[in-house]
Amino acid sequence: MNLKKLLGSLTAVACLLILSLPALGQTINGSISGQVKDQQGAAVAGATVAITNVDTGQKRETTTNDEGLYKVLSLPVGTYEVTVQKTGLTPVRFARQSAPAPIQP
Asked: What is residue 83's DSSP assignment?
C-alpha cells in the first residue's frame, strides 16, 4: 500500500472516530414541566416543586419563576411524584407522573 492510500485510509478512520464521539454521550432522559396556579388561576411564584422518582427515591427540586413556571430536565425515564409547596398554601401532590423519553428522529 502506498503512502497516499494509507494517509487516505487513516483520514477516513479519524473522521469516523470524530463523528461517532457525540453518540457516546447520548442517554435517554425526559423532563417534567408545568405551571403552578392558585385556586383563582393566578400564577404562584416562588413555590418549591419537588420531583421524586418513585422507583429510586431520587429527588430533584426547583422553584417556580414569576409566571409560576417550572421545568426539570435530564430526568431518567420513569415514574415520578411531583409535590408543590409554598408557605401559606396547602401542599399539592401529583403521583405517578411520567417522564417520557423524547422521540429521536
From this structure: E
Q: Could you tell me the mean pLDDT of each successive run of 10 residues in the chain, 105 residues long?
A: 47 47 62 90 94 93 96 89 91 71 54
76 Cβ contact partners less than 8 Å away, ≥ 6 residues apart: 28, 29, 30, 53, 58, 99
Confidence (pTM): 0.67
Domains of the chain, CATH where assigned:
28-99 (2.60.40.1120)
What contacts 74, CB < 8 A, 6 or more positions away? Answer: 29, 31
Contact predicate 80/68, CB 8 Å: no
